[in-house]
Amino acid sequence: MVKIGFIGAGNMARAIINGWLATGKVAAADILIHSAHRQSYGPYAEEKGLVPVESNKEVVEQAEIVFLAVKPLVLGSVLAEIKQDVQTKKSVLVSMVSGVSLAEIQEVLGNGKVELLRIMPNVNVEINEGITALAGNPTLTDEHYHFCEDLLNTLGKTTPLAEKDFSTFVALGGSSPAFVYFFIDSLARAGVKYGLTKKQATEIAAQAVMGSAKKILVASKTPWELVDAVSSPGGTTVAGLLAMEEAGFMTSIVKAVDATIAKDQKK
Ligand SMILES: NC(=O)C1=CN([C@@H]2O[C@H](COP(=O)(O)OP(=O)(O)OC[C@H]3O[C@@H](n4cnc5c(N)ncnc54)[C@H](OP(=O)(O)O)[C@@H]3O)[C@@H](O)[C@H]2O)C=CC1
Ligand SMILES: O=C(O)[C@@H]1CCC=N1
Q1: 68 DSSP β-pair partners
Q2: Lowest-confidence range among 27-36, 109-118, 130-139, 208-217?
Q3: How far is the CA of 98 from the centre of ligand 2 (A)?
Q4: Which are the contacts of 30, defined by CB distance < 8 A and separation ≥ 6?
Q5: 56 labelled as ligand-binding?
């Protein structure tokens, strides 16, 4: 089987790996992993049956496809460390690092052509309900693109995306789970205000959000038409909606997206 390497063993690397292991798409023994601290990647590798290796270079030496799952500030030094081996091994590099373009990665790697795939997943890949954007560089073969796409499709949905739209995707797909968790927590907290337990209120809010998201994905109606369908004339829902808008609900969402895009473009 193709060996898949991970440089970085944090939240996103683990979400992807756990998603694959849950479906059996990738065998644990085919995943190599290294990160900054042995006490971080070691126990995780042992718990899941992955192959821990001693350095980033060793990940590249042993894996055909290498996922870069480090923070943007660390990426430059990691690329400098592995660039020689990447050229020798003709590795496929898959970067999930936000705010760093394929051209910027290629620049650090130097003149030799490297197969690069830029992705932007979200944490819900861990439960195979993620959405991941993909953009390959011209050197990436169709075969490798589709191999990676197939791997990522088991984690939810994927969508090819022009690189110019990655910052927008970060807001709508990558960071948005946090926005939705925040919304659910706020709804649940309001339930606590009126006497529900936090656990009960969170379950109610989360189920309502999940059902609403599924409804939007299958319905022939637009979200606005669905809002109208819930809003009985003179009823409770329209009273709640108008109060939300008075507090600037839509503006707050758009501002969150603006701020996320601005931050991504500053990395
Ligand atoms: N979290 C999310 O929801 C999403 C994150 N991303 C992107 O994924 C990337 C990783 O994010 P996330 O997992 O949240 O971050 P974390 O902080 O959870 O993980 C970062 C990982 O990088 C490792 N690391 C640091 N320095 C090195 C090094 N020199 N060599 C090897 N590994 C190193 C850390 O090691 P150690 O554990 O040993 O300290 C850690 O495992 C980021 O670029 C982010 O933009 C993309 C989409 C969604
Ligand atoms: O917060 C971040 O920078 C990363 C990118 C998308 C989700 N988390």
Answers
A1: 7, 95
A2: 109-118
A3: 7
A4: 1, 2, 3, 4
A5: yes
Q: Annotated binding residue at 135?
A: no
> Binding residue per annotation — 211?
no
Q: Which ipTM value was assigned to this complex?
A: 0.98
pLDDT class of 266 with cuts at 50, 70, 90: confident
Using only C-alpha atoms, the chain has a radius of gyration, in whole angstroms, of 21
Atom of ligand 2 nearest to the CA of 170: 6
> What pTM did the predictor assign?
0.96
CA distance 28 to 147: 18
Q: Does residue 267 have a pLDDT over 80? A: no
191 Cβ inside 6 Å of ligand 2: no
What domains does the chain contain, in order, with CATH numbers? 4-166 (3.40.50.720), 176-266 (1.10.3730.10)
Report which bound ligand comes closest to the CA of 124: 1
Report the candidate in 38, 76, 67, 66 with the shortest Cα–Cα distance to residue 54.
38
Is the Cβ atom of 175 under 6 angstroms away from ligand 2? yes
The pair of structure tokens assigned to 151 is 């791997």
